[in-house]
Amino acid sequence: EAAEQAAAAARIQKAAAAGTFEKKKKKASAEVVRKSFLKQAGAIFDDIDADKNGNIDAAELQAGMRSNKQLMRMMRQADASSSSLALDGLELGRVSREHFEAFVTQLSTQVVKKQECERRRRDGIVSQAEKMFREVDADGSNSVDEEELAAAVGNAAGGFARLIRQLGRPLKVSDVSSSGCISLKKFIAFVRAAMAEVERARE
Questions:
Q1: Do the Cβ atoms of 153 and 171 come closer than 8 Å?
Q2: Is residue 10 exposed (0-12), middle (13-18) or buried (19+ Cβ within 10 Å)?
Q3: In a designed cystine with 108, which of 27, 37, 93, 184 is the match (CB 3.0 to 4.6 A)?
């Protein structure tokens, strides 16, 4: 009993350590993006400030959004549009360098959030693909042969069969692998591509 408790405590400690590491990793990643954006902010501000008076007015900002490649790239990365922007000072007709740097920091935060959403989406797809693989790999050999694939596609209630129906075309092992069987890695890659194709078809 003592050994079981010790093992359970070790598992909890390991999970906590993994969670702490993941949080530190995310924080470090966010800081890298923030510093990268702020490093470019000064040069962008100087380029947009056409009259060099130390402030950006609405006309200069709009022109900069159309001509400054660095700012345009930042906005694309953050999925921001000129209509959704809110810069302190713009309502007064001018944006200071400090206000602009605060705005760029907000853009970097949006980029980090977008990256995190994408990471979670990818992790979710991998998790679904692994679950489908276990469903299809009937003999537990860590590979899928033609017979197992056909059986899985024919299983109307299975998640993999639903994906193939959504894809709208038949599937053979040779469509995914030339070796006569499908490994987990190739299976995940196929599921990821198939899900993306299905999503594009819905748009």
A1: yes
A2: exposed
A3: 37
Tens-place pLDDT, residues 165-185: 988 888 888 888 888 899 999
pLDDT at 86 over 60: no
100 contacts 62 by C-beta, under 8 angstroms: no
End-to-end CA distance of the chain: 56
- Can you tell me the distance from the alpha carbon of 75 to that of 72, in angstroms, rounded to the nearest whole number? 5
d(CA 173, CA 179): 9
Whether 56 and 48 have beta carbons less than 8 Å apart is answered as yes
The tokens for 33 are 């993006």
User: Is 85:101 a contact under the CB 8 Å cutoff?
Assistant: no
pLDDT digits (tens, 9 = 90+) for 139-154: 999 999 999 999 998 8
pTM (global) more than 0.90: no
Amino acid identity at 139: D
Query: Residue 139 has what DSSP assignment?
Result: T
**Total residue length of the chain:** 203
Cα–Cα distance between 156 and 69 in angstroms, integer?
50
